[in-house]
Amino acid sequence: MVAIRAYVTTVAAAGLLALAPSAALAAPTALDDGSFEYPVAPANSFNALKAGQTIGPWSVDSGSVDHIGKGFWQAADGDQSVDLNGGGPGKVSQTIRTTAGKTYTVSYALAGNPEGNQGLRTGRVLIDGQNFQDFSFDTTGKTRANMGYVGRQVTFVATGATTTLSFASTSATGAYGPVIDDVRVKSGCCSCSTCSD
Ligand SMILES: [Ca+2]
What we know:
The protein is mainly β. It has one domain (26-187): Galactose-binding domain-like (Jelly Rolls, Sandwich), CATH 2.60.120. The protein has one helix spanning 2-19; strands at 46-50, 54-55, 58-62, 64-68, 81-83, 91-97, 103-112, 120-127, 130-138, 150-157, 162-169, 178-187. It has a 6-stranded antiparallel beta sheet with strand order 1-4-5-12-7-10, with no helix packed on it. A 6-stranded antiparallel beta sheet has the order 2-3-6-11-8-9, with no helix packed on it. A hairpin with a 2-residue loop joins β2 and β3. The radius of gyration is 19 Å and the shape is globular. Residues 6-28 have low confidence and may be disordered. This is Choice-of-anchor C family protein. It comes from Streptomyces albus.
């Protein structure tokens, strides 16, 4: 009787797993749309998004950001990117599957909104809400057609089955913030050979 009960429990557990998102069986890291290509933002324009709204799999957690459409300015990958300042500093996050104790490397392309008063645009990468990397980008001399993206990376060790990755502006530069695109997460250390910092 005990054995039968154990069997039934196992089947029930498997049934629950089958009902979970199919992503549960996918690769160990699963950042979705790190290029901000979905949804499609207005061409030659952008969508202004506030805290509580989403950009595909990304959530806007605080402040406001602009989801930049094709043609508005150069993207680092694909057509679209994100200005982490909408009306002011904002923050976007995505929770990914991780394995506790494993090392992961986040790489991303960084630039800044070249409009307004050119100069430094600043922000940070947060892992589970903790500041893991401050970044800055100088937009001096940059244009919408030549954004001057640079590759950056940051490495973290996961502490749980999920990890929340966030990019936040710390830039008190009004509507002109740091710009990110082409976010990738790979297991292991320092896999981005072209990245600096
Ligand atoms: Ca993109």
